[in-house]
Amino acid sequence: MTGLWTSAPNDDGATDSWQVEDVSPTADNRSEYPLVRDCGVFALRREGDGQHVVCIEKLTGRVLWKSELKFHECRLAADERRVYALARADGADWLCAALEARSGETIWSRGDDRANPHPPSMLSVTPAGVCWTRKGELVLRDCETGDLKWSASLGANEILSATVEQDGTVFAASRSKLYALHSDTGRCLWSRTLANDSAAFAPFPPFLKASAGKLLVASRRAAGGGLLQCVDPGTRDVLWTRETPAPINLHADADRVYLRSQALAAYETRTGTPLWTAKVGGCGPLAFQDGRVYLADPKGRYSLLALDARSGKPVWRHSTVASCGGIVINGETGFVSGSDGRLHAVALATERKGRGRQYL
């Protein structure tokens, strides 16, 4: 395969471990793209008028395999055994396929037999199966066989978040409601109205995260700005609500909720109390490791930026490629799907001040 560089300098003089060319973003710009697993890095690579799923060796950037299936547009998800592609060729119907993670061999492929004219989105893998949302609907297939386990209609005009599963319940948020469904049957157990003025006109799906037994929902308001809400799924109570800028990405752990807009803000998970705000630009998701939050900051000379997760203070910057896809961390390497159409592997080791790194 062509398109492999080792120790390739970028325009600012920094050095990436490797780069692979012609790597495409996914249609839903997932936070964890590229997908990094034990057996490799999974991404989409352009070839001619379509794209394939490829597996890339983490250490060298060598392309290990590419899928026989060729797509025009695609969403990706993966567990340690399989890579799942929700895709279609140009003008064709959507299909869901499972590929063997170590070889790329197609395990199963199922056409989309749902009579819904809207394109699917938000593909994810849960303990119950491989699940995706589309306008007004959730669909879940068995990971082993690809057989349809269930589909659930939640309202024709509902734009849904990615799903979260806890204790046998699948949760999804719309612009105005939180839904709880039985993971085995798709039966709606309950729904909870969420505060969001004029939400029906906001064309963006909300973000949904689970943390410490609570559910966090961040949504955009039609008139601008956003709302961050914390829900107890046991009592269905909204524990707290905060007005925020329009959300771009959401992350939560047991202690803090991190909301990225045109700035990055941290809130206490239990109470929603604002903890700190960092004035960073950018448009992509967040990654966490060793008490630091990593993000791409295109306004700062195309840099990767690391902040102290407790204080929000910047501690590390690495000049690299512009990206709205964020960074995925595995060990001491960060993987970035760049706006230049390449996948970059960036060394994150902090024991020494390497070329192109700035410590703040």
User: How many runs of DSSP E, i.e. beta strands?
Assistant: 35
Unreliably modeled segments: 1-14, 350-357
Helical segment count: 0
SSE class: mainly beta
**Strand-residue fraction?**
over 45%
Global outline: globular
Main sheet summary? 5 strands, antiparallel
CATH topology of the domain at 1-21 and 289-360: Thrombin, subunit H
CATH class of the domain at 1-21 and 289-360: Mainly Beta
Task: Supply the CATH architecture of the domain at 1-21 and 289-360.
Answer: Beta Barrel
How are the SSEs placed, and which strands pair?
Blueprint (H helix, E strand, L loop, with lengths): L3 E3 L11 E3 L2 E2 L10 E3 L2 E8 L2 E7 L6 E4 L6 E6 L3 E7 L6 E6 L5 E6 L9 E6 L2 E6 L2 E5 L6 E6 L10 E3 L2 E5 L3 E6 L5 E6 L13 E5 L2 E7 L5 E6 L6 E7 L4 E4 L3 E5 L3 E5 L5 E5 L8 E3 L2 E6 L5 E6 L5 E6 L8 E3 L2 E5 L5 E5 L9 E3 L1
Antiparallel strand pairs: 1-2, 2-34, 3-5, 4-5, 5-6, 6-7, 8-9, 9-10, 10-11, 12-13, 13-14, 14-15, 16-17, 17-18, 18-19, 20-21, 21-22, 22-23, 24-25, 25-26, 26-27, 28-29, 29-30, 30-31, 31-35, 32-33, 33-34
Features:
360 residues, mainly beta, Thrombin, subunit H, five-stranded antiparallel β-sheet, 0% helix, globular
Question: Can you describe this structure?
Answer:
By secondary structure, the protein is an all-beta fold. Helices cover 0% and strands 50% of the residues. The protein has a 5-stranded antiparallel sheet with strand order 1-2-34-33-32, with no helix packed on it. Strands 3, 4, 5, 6 and 7 form a 5-stranded antiparallel sheet that branches. Strands 28-29-30-31-35 form a 5-stranded antiparallel sheet, with no helix packed on it. Strand 22 and strand 23 (238-244) form a beta hairpin. The radius of gyration is 20 Å and the shape is globular. Residues 1-14 and 350-357 have low confidence and may be disordered.
